[in-house]
Amino acid sequence: MKAIALVLAVIFFVVAILYGVGILQIGTHEAGPHVKHALLFAILGALSLVWIRFQSKPTNASLR
Amino acid sequence: MTWLQAMLLAVLQGASELFPISSLGHTVLVPSLLRWRFDRSDPTFLSFVVALHLGTAVALIVYYWADWVRIVGKLSASVVRGNLSDDPDEKVAWLLVIGTVPVALLGVFLEKPVRAFFGSTALVAIFLIANALVMFAGEALRKRAAGAGTQAARPLSRLPWPDGAKIGLAQAAALLPGISRSGSSIVAGLLLRLDHEDAARYSFLLATPVIFAASALEIPKLFAPEAATVLGQAAVGAVVAALTAYASVAFLTRWFHSHDLRPFGWYCLVFGLLCLALSLTKVIS
């Protein structure tokens, strides 16, 4: 699971950069940088890092 | 846009964003009914709308200030600690994160394609009727489950993670003008065994980051040269929208203590049918 989270984090950050510099245009309607898309994927990348961190430490609460 | 129109739009936005009656639907239908001609793509109008949404988001943050302080604190502590505890506020905090992801993804990718629906008052009226039927069906299913005694309500902090995401996904239906954000997420919460109070609380908390982020990202539009002409209306409109939104959320949290969604369903059904009839007979367009 930790490896999956790491791969996801890398993918999300790369996608965020590609949207941010305007190279990636999937799901967009205008050319150029896409700040909203970039921010969204950067946040998803950050959440993936949190997921990695959670797997590194014992969890007190069960995932109900 | 006159000052009267601006203030009426501010009141409409502040109230309809939180009442389960669809703010997007009302911002399409009400100006059509009143024969107001706005160019929705006009930069000055967009700046004004951004200000109204900011006002609404600020009202939600102020109303739930104590909750947000606890939620952000517990979330930060959880990340620093690197694990999950049994703390109910921490559970709610992570449920909000999980619930926000689907609507953020769908909102970013579907916002523009969905705007095609905004031009048709008939379609918006149909979505408003669908919104009513969803609320009626949600209440009926909830009552049937409660009557059978198989599904007692559970507190928000006992909501499983996938259910938090499902409610977030339901919220995304509100991208369609006529479908209410709070209506769809409260119905989803009821079907996932929350009571009305907790379903409404989760819905309003869930709406806050979405409305705030969507409007905060558009703040530069407020300072565009064309926006200078509406800056006064935008500033006063934001305050009016904030006051209306605050009063609305205060009313609704008390309302859901002992009432349900059906009166709002009846309103959406009657208003939707009226607008559909007027649209089909070309009285409004």
Describe the structure.
The complex is a heterodimer of chains A (64) and B (285). The mean pLDDT of chain A is 85. Chain A contains two helices and no strands. With 64 residues, chain A is mainly α. In chain A, helix 1 packs antiparallel against helix 2. Chain B is mainly alpha-helical. In chain B, helix 1 crosses helix 3, helix 1 runs parallel beside helix 11 and helix 6 runs antiparallel to helix 12. The model of chain B has no long low-confidence stretch (mean pLDDT 90). The interface between A and B is medium-sized, with 21 and 19 residues.
Essential attributes:
heterodimer; A: 64 residues; mainly alpha; B: mainly alpha; 12 helices
Task: Present the secondary structure layout.
The complex is a heterodimer of chains A (about 60) and B (about 280).
Chain A: H1 2-21, H2 35-56
Chain B: H1 3-16, H2 23-33, H3 43-63, H4 65-81, H5 88-114, H6 121-148, H7 161-171, H8 181-191, H9 196-216, H10 219-222, H11 231-258, H12 262-280
Quickly describe the structure.
Chain A has 64 residues and is mainly α. Helix content of chain A is 66%, strand content 0%.
Q: What is the strand content of chain A?
A: under 5%
Order of helices and strands of chain B: HHHHHHHHHHHH
> Unreliable runs of chain B, pLDDT <50, ≥5 residues?
none
- Structural class call of chain B reads mainly alpha
Number of strands of chain A: 0
Extended strand count of chain B: 0
Backbone CA Rg of chain A: 15 Å
Largest sheet of chain B: none
Quaternary structure type: heterodimer
Overall pLDDT score of chain B: 90
Number of helices of chain A: 2
Largest interface: A-B, 21 and 19 residues
The profile of the biggest β sheet of chain A is: none
Quick one: overall form of chain A?
elongated
Give the helix level of chain B as a range of percent. Answer: over 70%
Proportion of residues in β-strands of chain B: under 5%
Q: Judging from the principal axes of the Cα atoms, what is the shape of chain B?
A: globular
Residue share in helix of chain A:
55-70%
Q: Unreliable stretches of chain A, pLDDT < 50, 5 or more residues?
A: none
Mean pLDDT of chain A: 85
Distance between the termini of chain A: 18 Å
